[in-house]
């Protein structure tokens, strides 16, 4: 393949091309009303033109790696938490990340930000828009577009209760006797929420909770409003727009109400708007579903109506999708000491479409989703993992199914505590096992994201769960800066050991061209006790071999490639000694680079 210089930024759509593309999407969504909605969209864009910052940079490179954090995970007295975060990035993490994903920083009423009250305001307890814009000094800013639902404390909901515009028609009323048994549920709470209005009791669609009321995108007013909100975020400096819970956006009675064609059409329309008005801005979809469903959000569309079945396709939805399979599969691998399932899954991944990549992560503000394991692990293996997570202090959140039964949806636990031991129980290898999970993720094709609590080896916050009554709080601890500084500056603390190791590995990764998201990956045959992946080769023959021991025992390295000349050990910063004993210590890894013809 060619040398992986970063791809050019997305070519700006000219006016005619944009109108054709937008109209096609609007016809999929609204049928005969498409022309009317298109005129409104053009008016909105004409008002925004000129306010959007210009970008002329590649989509991504090997330097891209994001920190995921709430705006207030780090507290320091009365200082605005966003300023504390900015200082932490400037000092402790200087040169480590290419950008930061600040989870919803808007005024909110529940779910730690994902029940938004005001979309165009910064929660004053965090700071202000200037504090948000200041974070762009550290690189790209990812911002959530919480698009599926809104807080019942929002002004839109107040309008609905009063029967006034604009919110009067922003929500989905439903007869409680309607058969909704086909609807895919991510929660076990009731789908319809009773609400007292001036017209009497009405029942509203609420996919996630009674405080998160779904919005009615069958009403074009809602779509136009959210396109305006998205562009406002870009105007404030956001380069990556995260579409939260996007899979559930469109509702159609009698269907599963997930991944519907209209939902994909909305994503394609948002992409068209960004390509036209803010080329280089990236869309990422958050869809916690099995991998094959997740892949659909790249939006592979036929180039024209005359193409044959084997004709090339082009993506026109998300630039990135979350790699939801990776977090639970890594937990299974490292607690069982068997990489068979991980290797099979990684080997099955299709080639990425041009201009698309994965967002790789192990932990986030949510739990460790288990739906992505469907079809990858037998039920008894999933049950064994869930039982172990209980033993390590975690909880399991459930979802409702069409048959009336509840099944596991996600594990609520910190990723550090999820790797406290193996199926035999807790052991002394927690730090090494955890670092192995992070280092393995960093070598896979895609852009990596590191949750703040992975950097700090955070333990389960059971006290937080008791205070909030929410299971996800277990992985959302708020650090007092003084307490965290003490752990980071003290010797022999897991927090310091993990933080220093990850910071070093991230800086090393950012300098290696084989980690460019466009560089192909190939899974290397190994015994089940090892996992190995090759990145490359590049045009000059350079390739990288990453090898991991996924067990708590020393393992031999039966890899014939290591007999070749020219390997360099990136971690040791020295030539690879082919005569040294061929074994790998528990949970240790190798990053070896080979460039044919280079001096050894």
From TrEMBL:
- Name a biological process GO annotation: carbohydrate metabolic process
Q: Which CDD domains match?
A: AmyAc_Sucrose_phosphorylase-like_1
Q: Which InterPro entries match?
A: GGa_phosphorylase, GH, GH13_cat_dom, Glyco_hydro_b, O16G_dom_2, Sucrose_GGa_phosphorylase-rel
Q: Provide the transmembrane region boundaries.
A: none
**Limits of the Glycosyl hydrolase family 13 catalytic domain:** 83-420
User: Which Pfam families has this protein been placed in?
Assistant: Alpha-amylase
Sequence positions that bind substrate: 111, 149, 242-244, 365-366, 472
- Molecular function (GO) terms listed? glycosyltransferase activity
Name the UniProt key words of this record, in alphabetical order: Glycosyltransferase, Transferase
SMART domains associated with the record? Aamy (SM00642)
Q: Return the protein name.
A: Alpha-amylase
* Annotated organism of origin: Chromohalobacter japonicus
Q: What is the lineage of its organism?
A: Bacteria, Pseudomonadati, Pseudomonadota, Gammaproteobacteria, Oceanospirillales
């Amino acid at each position: 393949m060619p040398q992986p210089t970063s791809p050019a930024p997305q070519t700006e759509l000219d006016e005619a091309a944009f109108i054709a593309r937008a109209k096609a999407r609007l016809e999929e969504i609204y049928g005969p009303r498409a022309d009317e909605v298109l005129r409104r969209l053009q008016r909105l864009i004409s008002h925004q033109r000129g306010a959007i910052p210009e970008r002329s940079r590649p989509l991504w490179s090997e330097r891209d790696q994001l920190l995921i954090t709430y705006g207030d995970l780090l507290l320091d007295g009365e200082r605005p938490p966003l300023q504390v975060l900015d200082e932490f990035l400037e000092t402790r993490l200087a040169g480590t990340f290419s950008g930061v994903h600040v989870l919803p920083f808007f005024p909110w009423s529940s779910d730690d930000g994902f029940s938004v009250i005001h979309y165009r305001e910064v929660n004053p307890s965090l700071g202000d828009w200037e504090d948000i814009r200041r974070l762009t000094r550290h690189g790209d800013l990812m911002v959530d577009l919480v698009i599926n639902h809104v807080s019942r404390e929002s002004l839109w909901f107040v309008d609905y209760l009063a029967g006034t515009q604009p919110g009067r028609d922003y929500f989905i009323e439903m007869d409680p006797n309607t058969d909704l048994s086909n609807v895919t549920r991510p929660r076990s709470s009731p789908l319809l929420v009773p609400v007292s209005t001036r017209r009497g009791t009405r029942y509203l669609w609420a996919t996630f909770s009674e405080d998160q009321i779904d919005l009615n995108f069958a009403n074009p007013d809602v779509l136009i409003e959210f396109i305006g909100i998205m562009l406002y975020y870009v105007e404030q400096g956001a380069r990556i727009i995260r579409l939260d819970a996007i899979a559930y956006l469109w509702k159609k009675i009698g269907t599963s109400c997930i991944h519907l064609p209209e939902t994909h059409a909305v994503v394609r329309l948002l992409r068209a708007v960004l390509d036209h008005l803010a080329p280089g801005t990236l869309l990422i979809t958050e869809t916690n579903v099995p991998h094959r469903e997740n892949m659909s959000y790249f939006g592979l569309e036929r180039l024209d109506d005359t193409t044959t079945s084997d004709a090339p396709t082009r993506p026109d939805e998300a630039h990135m999708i979350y790699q939801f399979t990776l977090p639970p599969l890594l937990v299974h691998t490292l607690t069982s000491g068997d990489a068979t399932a991980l290797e099979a899954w990684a080997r099955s991944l299709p080639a990425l479409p041009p201009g698309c990549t994965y967002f790789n992560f192990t932990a986030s503000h949510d739990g460790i989703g288990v739906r992505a394991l469907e079809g990858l692990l037998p039920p008894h293996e999933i049950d064994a993992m869930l039982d172990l997570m209980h033993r390590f202090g975690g909880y399991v959140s459930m979802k409702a199914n069409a048959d009336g039964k509840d099944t596991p949806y996600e594990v609520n636990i910190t990723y550090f505590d999820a790797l406290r031991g193996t199926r035999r129980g807790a052991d002394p290898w927690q730090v090494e096992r955890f670092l192995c999970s992070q280092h393995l993720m960093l070598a896979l094709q895609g852009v990596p994201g590191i949750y703040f609590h992975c950097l700090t080896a955070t333990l389960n916050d059971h006290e937080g769960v008791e205070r909030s009554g929410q299971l996800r709080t277990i992985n959302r601890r708020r650090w007092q800066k003084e307490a965290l500084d003490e752990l980071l500056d003290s010797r022999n603390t897991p927090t310091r050991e993990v933080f220093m190791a990850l910071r070093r590995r991230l800086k090393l990764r950012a300098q290696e061209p084989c980690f460019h998201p466009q560089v192909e990956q190939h899974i290397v045959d190994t015994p089940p006790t090892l996992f190995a992946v090759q990145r490359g080769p590049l045009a000059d023959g350079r390739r990288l071999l990453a090898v991991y021991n996924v067990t708590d025992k020393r393992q031999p390295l039966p890899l014939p490639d290591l007999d070749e000349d020219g390997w360099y050990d990136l971690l040791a910063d020295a030539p690879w000694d082919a005569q040294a004993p061929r074994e790998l210590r528990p949970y240790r890894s190798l990053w070896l680079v080979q460039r044919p013809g280079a001096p050894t």
